[in-house]
Design brief:
By secondary structure, this protein is α+β, with helices and mostly antiparallel strands. The chain is about 35% helix and about 25% strand. Strands 1, 2, 3, 4, 5, 6, 7 and 8 form an eight-stranded mixed sheet that branches. Strand 7 and strand 8 form a beta hairpin. Helix 6 packs across helix 7.
C-alpha cells in the first residue's frame, strides 16, 4: 500500500476519491448503505456531479471526526499499538483509515454508537455496511484484523470529574475547547472474510461497467399549448 499525504475533506482528497474505488463508497456499491443508494452513487460517478453537503450532513461529518479523535486513545489501549489516520492506495483501491498501526497489521475503524451497533454481540452481527468498509480497508492495507469501535460522548462541565468516567477535550462547532465525557462504547475485533472480499471486487467491477455504460435520461420537451 502507498500512503498519500492527503487531508480528509480537502479538494485534493475529493479529487483523489473521484478516480478510485473507496472503502467508504463500497456500501453504496454493494447496496447496503443507509446514506446513499447504488443508483444515486452511480449517477454521481458517471456525471461527476455530487450533491452539496447540507448542514445536517456536515455536522455528522464534523462530529464523526471529533469523536474519532477522542476515541483513538481508547482504541490504541485495546490494540496495544499506536494508530495513525492515513489515506492509502493499492492500484485503483483506496481507503481513508481512522487508524492504522505502523506495520499495517491492525486497522482501526470508529463509528458513532447507534442502536443497530448496540444490539450486536459480535463483529459478524454488525450491519453489512460496516463489515464491507472494514473488509475493503483490510484489502488495501493488508491488515490482519480490524478493531471496530463505536462511542457515544456528551459535553461535560470542565470542573466536575466522576470516578471511573473517561474524559476528553475537543474543539466544538463554535471553535470553543469543550470537555466531553464518554457515555458508552462498544468494540469488536473483525477478522478477514475472503468470500465477502470477492463479492466486493465483483460488485465494483460491475459498478464500473455500469458507470461506463451510463446514459443520462433524456427528458423530451413538450410544446406549451395556449
Amino acid at each position: 500500500m502507498i500512503q498519500l499525504n492527503l487531508k480528509q475533506g480537502s479538494q485534493e482528497w475529493l479529487s483523489h476519491r473521484s478516480t478510485h474505488r473507496n472503502a467508504s463508497d463500497t456500501p453504496a456499491v454493494m447496496g447496503s448503505s443507509t446514506y446513499k443508494t447504488r443508483s444515486e452513487f452511480l449517477v454521481e460517478r458517471a456525471t461527476g456531479i455530487y450533491p452539496d453537503v447540507d448542514v445536517a450532513t456536515q455536522k455528522r461529518f464534523d462530529d464523526g471526526h471529533r469523536f474519532e479523535a477522542m476515541a483513538r486513545p481508547l482504541m490504541e489501549a485495546i490494540a496495544g499499538e499506536d494508530l495513525y489516520p492515513v489515506v492509502g492506495v493499492d492500484g485503483v483501491w483506496s481507503a481513508s483509515f481512522d487508524g492504522l498501526d505502523m506495520l499495517q497489521e491492525i486497522n482501526g475503524e470508529h463509528k458513532t454508537l447507534n442502536d443497530a451497533i448496540r444490539s450486536c454481540q459480535c463483529a459478524t452481527e454488525l450491519p453489512a455496511m460496516y463489515r464491507e468498509q472494514m473488509e475493503h480497508q483490510m484489502m488495501v492495507s493488508g491488515a490482519k484484523r480490524s478493531l471496530f469501535m463505536a462511542t457515544k460522548w456528551r459535553k461535560a462541565p470542565g470542573d466536575v470529574t466522576e470516578e471511573g468516567k473517561t474524559y476528553a477535550w475537543a474543539i466544538d462547532d463554535d471553535g470553543v475547547l469543550v470537555r466531553y465525557s464518554l457515555e458508552d462504547e462498544k468494540h469488536f475485533w473483525y477478522e478477514p472474510d475472503m468470500e465477502l472480499r470477492s463479492k466486493i471486487i465483483a460488485a465494483w467491477d460491475q459498478f464500473d461497467t455500469d458507470v461506463a455504460a451510463y446514459q443520462p435520461e433524456v427528458i423530451e420537451a413538450k410544446p406549451i399549448l395556449t
